Amino acid sequence: MSAYSSLKEKSTMKWVYKEENPFEKRRAEGEKIRRKYPDRIPVIVEKAPKARLRDLDKKKYLVPSDLTVGQFYFLIRKRFMILVRCFYIS
After folding, report:
1. Where do the TM regions start and end (predicted)?
2. Which residue, 28, 63, 69, 72, is CA-closest to 42?
3. Number of domains in the chain
């Protein structure tokens, strides 16, 4: 058994957007967006089903290609309006 198949079996997370929209529709929509905005990357963001967070007001984002993952993560957290508390251990 490959690492990918064992990881796939362990994964229980449901992707709502993926289940609601068939592959061909998602692919066509992605191609259309990439043609219209070649310098942007279409990204779908969903929270984990058991996360104790409120739902995002939108799932689809057009991310500039030069934005780092850390910067994108910061923007998503900002949308959630989560106060991040830092605990320093001395």
Report:
1. none
2. 63
3. 1
Range of the domain at 18: 3-80
H-helix or E-strand spanning residue 19:
helix 16-20
Q: Can you give the CATH number for the domain in which 34 is found?
A: 3.10.20.90
Alpha-carbon torsion, ordered 82, 59, 9, 51, to 10 deg: 30
Q: How many CB atoms lie within 10 A of CB 14?
A: 10
Residue-wise pLDDT for 63-78, tens only, equals 999 999 999 988 888 8
Asked if residue 74 is part of any domain, the answer here is yes
Residue of 9 and 80 predicted with greater confidence: 80
